[in-house]
Amino acid sequence: MSMGSNPNQPFLLPGTLFAKDGDYIITTVLGSCVAVCFWDPNLRRGGMNHYKLPLWNGDGLPSPKFGNIATNKLLELMLGMRCRREAIRAKIFGGAAVIQSSSGLLNVGQRNIEAARSILAEHRIPIVAADVGGECSRKVIFNTLDGTVMVKKASPQ
Questions:
Q1: How is the chain split into domains, by residue range?
Q2: Active site (annotated) includes residue 83
Q3: Which end of the chain is more exposed for a tag (fewer CB within 10 A), N or C?
Q4: pTM
Q5: Does the domain at residues 11-153 carry the CATH identifier 3.30.1330.200?
């Protein structure tokens, strides 16, 4: 994560997440990666992750570049801000097929989307909005003050 010039506008690199008390504009850019945004409408608190691969298989360190680790860690941060699990809503973005493989078996974007859906179902966190799949990369801008997300799609190559 790099803060850029404004500490209230964190930019998420792949394998990072952000959730803190306060009002933030969190931005990231996604290709086949997926970002999960959590928002608690009661406390008006939110956070976002950005992961590259669907599931950590137990090898090496449990890094947030994996969807299950990144999403569980984001939930921990939200609960640490006194958010209630029952109140948290999710929005998911990304998972584009930006690298075409001849077999189609390597569609990591699709696997990242499926990982997000199953992890959130496991935690019983409803997905209230999604902009996933396709072939375009996306810039995602999440305002934790009001829970709104703006998505700008790149034109396909």
A1: 11-153
A2: no
A3: C
A4: 0.92
A5: yes
